[in-house]
């Protein structure tokens, strides 16, 4: 597969002219885009997008998750979840069943097709991370993990 071109807009020379935190923000924005580029292209071929992948990713790691818990993890409203989740259910990528304990609650689980799509999309992102971690070495990877943990703690 051909290597994706450098993300439009990121010019390393311009980073030197930015405040340190602005340079970090710019790298984060373009880094995210670079990490998700191939995954998003794959998802688009499946008729899906980033919100669908986020749902698939979470449900894959938490089978039988309640919709309320999914909303909390994703940090979105029920209304924002409704359309992408309905598409995933309609396409038989996610199943929805009533909770035996709480009949008003629905539990979500990936189907085999949903697992395949989630796995392939996430594999594209894991590949980019692996290549980056290999490039910066163990200390660079550990530093990145520390920064991301500190940012994630803001949630």
Q: Helical stretch count?
A: 6
Order of helices and strands: HHHEHHEEH
The main sheet comes to: 3 strands, antiparallel
Determine the N-to-C terminus distance.
37 Å
Question: Which spans have pLDDT < 50 for at least 5 consecutive residues?
Answer: none
The counted number of beta strands is 3
* Shape annotation: elongated
**Strand order, biggest sheet?**
1-3-2
Strand content: 5-15%
Structural class: mainly alpha
Which whole number gives the mean pLDDT?
90
| Helix content bin | 55-70%
What is the C-alpha radius of gyration, as a whole number of Å?
18 Å
Task: Explain the overall architecture.
The structure is a single chain. The chain is built from 6 helices and 3 strands. With 155 residues, it is mostly helical. It starts with 11 loop residues before the first helix and ends with a helix. The radius of gyration is 18 Å and the shape is elongated. Helix 2 (20-45) packs antiparallel against helix 6 (112-152) and helix 3 crosses helix 6 (112-152). It has a 3-stranded antiparallel beta sheet with strand order 1-3-2.
Describe, in short, the structure shown.
With 155 residues, the chain is mainly alpha-helical.
